[in-house]
Amino acid sequence: MAAATLLTVLAGCGSTADSATGSSTEEAASSESKTITIGSQSSDAQIWEFIADSEAAEKAGLTLEVKDIDGGPQLNTATVDEEVDVNAFQSWAYLQSFNEQTGAELTAFATTYLEPMGVYSDKYTALEEIPDGAIVAIADNPSNASRGLLLLQAAGLLTLTDDFDALGTTADIVENPKNLEFVEIDDTTGPRVLTDVDLALISNSVALEGGLNVLEDSLYYEEVSEDTKNNINILVTQKENAEDPNILKLAELYHSKEVQDYIAKEFGGTKVAVQKEISYLEE
């Protein structure tokens, strides 16, 4: 687990003199603090650790505690249980799936980026080379599995039902001209299975950890569009905190120039910034 960096949010209030002590409510308020804890993992945790130490955070009057928690369900559960105030790791589709499956009411309050999923292969250099009966590694979790199938459809390798959604499965394939065969994998192992399959659908965070750049090493990858908005990453908090002014500051902080310059340099342009209202995802 990454070491936590403590962040304090100074509360600001109006000033009124205290006739007995000569102190002011402004001075009292300035001594109060609120800690905002961010739960994240892998490259996202790295970004938030940078943000916690950034000039942008200092100018915003924020100090963050970053908790590196391994695993999406664990991160969401930690948020439900209020062990963290905000989490930063998941796509809109992943959040919808988690809430639907658990009955939780976690709420997105800001968009951050699209991290393109890619179609990778150690055996072929172009989609046109993919043979009949090719074996495709697909994630064993619902949101990334459906995302991978939509990517294959966009690449022209199969056709899905018209009502295919974020919980769609291989049972929703209506045309499979190359007779692709699917094997489920733990999607954190994507790069390691490339030698055992013809194709692998790998999320960018996992690809980066395996030394792959989706813009350079994949046969095909997602781009920001109406068709990929379910895959946009978000900042998430408890429903009752979604309008908290201190929480909302995190969105502006993430999209500050200092932070965006760091992300572009550190991750080779593979975290494509998306700054839209949550209503865009809900449409």
TrEMBL record:
Entry GO terms, CC: membrane
Pfam families per record: Lipoprotein_9 (PF03180)
Region (Disordered): 16-36
Low complexity composition-biased segments: 16-33
Primary localisation category: membrane
Key words of the record: Lipoprotein, Membrane, Palmitate, Signal
Localization terms from the record: Membrane
The keyword Membrane is assigned to this record: yes
Sequence similarity: Belongs to the nlpA lipoprotein family.
Name of the protein in question: Lipoprotein
